[in-house]
Structure formats: C-alpha cells, structure tokens
C-alpha cells in the first residue's frame, strides 16, 4: 500500500511538469527551426506587417535574425539585430525554470507573471525602444 502512494505521488509530480516541459519542447523546436532556416534568405519568412505598411521598425523587427544568430552562437550579431529580444531571453528562461520548479514541488501556480510595476516598466521600455530605434539618433538599434 505504501509503495502505491509513492508511485501515485511520483506520477503526480511527472504530470505537474508536463505543461512546462511542453512549453520547453515547443520553444526548442521553434528555436531549432529558426536556427536552421536562415531568416536572412528571402522567401523563408513573411515580412513584418508593421514594417511593410509603415516603413518603420517594430520592437520585434530583427528578432528572428537575432535568434538565428544565437542559434549559431553569435551573440554580438544577435545583440546588433535586436538587443531587447536578446536581453529578454534570460528573464524568460528564469521564469520558465521557476514555473517548472514550483510545478515539481506541487506548489500552486502563480496567478500573475510578475508584479504589475515590473510589467508596466517592461511595457514602457518596449515603447521607448520602439520609438528610439526609428529616430535618426537611434539607428544603432535598428536591425
């Protein structure tokens, strides 16, 4: 009877990390695809709709090429293509690891990603990045 309880707890733990591992699998598959299919070659990916319609760079412009560069261990090129995306990646990895650990420990999932002040600060940083990369003095942020 006792071994049955331990087996059930083990299965509950495995089930609890299925969602984080599923997200990791999908993210890894997408990253491997972008690393192997060069976004610098025309015809592989669609054009950014915002860039196409306005001629201006959105905050995400250059992210595919930056992830491709990271997939080839070229961190400097990735930072040159989209520094915001490269800077955000470690935070996303941290939150994923935290989610996985909390799930494994059987602790309840957080109801929010972060404190609202941090989310508003991040949104403000994205908007500033978006505006500055399209101004003449911010061309170094353009992909």
Automatic annotation (TrEMBL):
Transmembrane residues, as ranges? 17-37, 76-97, 117-135
- Claim: Membrane is one of the keywords in the record: yes
Among InterPro entries, the record links this protein to: DUF2752
Among its keywords, does the record have Transmembrane helix? yes
What keywords sit in the KW lines?
Membrane, Transmembrane, Transmembrane helix
Q: Spell out the Pfam families in the cross-references.
A: DUF2752
Question: What is the recorded name of this protein?
Answer: Membrane protein
Q: What organism is this sequence from?
A: Sphaerimonospora thailandensis
